[in-house]
Amino acid sequence: MNYEKMNIQWFPGHMTKAQRMIEENIKLVDAVCEILDARIPRSSRNPDIDRLAGGKPRLVILNRTDLADPKGTAAWRKHFEAQGLAILETDAKSGRGVKDFAPAVRALLADKLAEYEAKGQVGRPLRVMILGIPNVGKSTFINKVAGRKAAIAGDKPGVTRGKQWISIDRGLDLLDTPGILWPKFDSQEVGEMLAITNAIKADVLDKETLGANFMLRLREHYPDALRERYKFEPDPEANGFELLEAAAKKRGFLVSRGEYDIERMANTLLGEYHDGKLGRLTLEYPNE
Ligand code: G4P
To answer: Where are the beta strands (DSSP E) in 11-52?
Structure first.
């Protein structure tokens, strides 16, 4: 696929700070829970996690399963399970799957619990560090697990919060960390995935090009979504801008005689994907 080239610059210092905070606090926890976006489990994962987790037992949460293709989620579950990781599928917004979190942590840490009990440390809480890129749903998830407004949910990608412990009923403490991203990432694809799913602000990228490349991905993996939502037959020879134009034509986004507003179409496409109007689409599959 010939994707259009783009410049991506995203090197915020607070991401490095967050990484340092994880290194400093990892000793305090019994387990690490990574929250991933089920639509982009590869791009939403910190590639340093193996090192940062320092050998602690790990639970992977595939969140936003309400927006992901069930086939994709099943494939990722298999992929992570094969690596010996415990998996939980959630939709933190509605709360689906969240009630399985505490039992999953206890199962993951059964040895630790037995050890505490043998030492007579009954009631010692299990401590879990919660990690995830900005906007993946950490606050929403923690609020749902805690059953009250424990963490402050924010909708601004890149906004960091300080470290805080949140006590959950029945012996479970969560350590909420600011979202971490890469200290730097230089793959255009990762940048695009993060922008499409709102982990980074799309305005750090060129929206038209982002929309054009997204069109190419949709034509490849989910052409029916284009046919159904935008009522056009994606030409296999067209470039991404031409696909945007074809959709803009159908929408009647005319700027002048015979000229269509592809920027408006790019914004519409990204907005409608965000709102789930294109259906449940997973953008990355294992072993690609
Ligand atoms: P963060 O702490 O990791 O930064 O994320 P936060 O919980 O603030 O969630 C970011 C947005 O994602 C929130 O929406 C939240 O409702 C939504 N969200 C979290 N989990 C899920 C999920 O499983 N499914 C869906 N569909 N949405 C989820 P928001 O602030 O209202 O913005 P918007 O993205 O909904 O527009």
So the answer is: 31-37
Task: Please identify, by atom number, the ligand 1 atom nearest to the C-alpha of residue 133.
Answer: 3
| Closest C-alpha residue for ligand 1 atom 14 | 155
pLDDT of residue 163: 63
Helix (H, G, I), strand (E, B) or coil at 2: coil
Global pTM reads 0.89
Nearest Cα residue to 172 out of 119, 111, 130, 115: 130
pLDDT digits (tens, 9 = 90+) for 151-201: 444 444 444 445 678 888 668 899 887 556 665 566 788 889 999 998 887
* Regions of the chain with pLDDT less than 50: 151-161
- Domains by residue range for the chain, with CATH: 15-176 (3.40.50.300), 206-274 (1.10.1580.10)
Q: Which residues line ligand 1 (CB under 6 A)?
A: 63-64, 66-67, 91-93, 132, 134-140, 153-155, 179, 198
The 10 Å Cβ neighbour count of residue 272 is 14
Question: In testing the pocket of ligand 1, which one of 135, 194, 197, 278 has its CB within 8 Å of the most ligand atoms?
Answer: 135
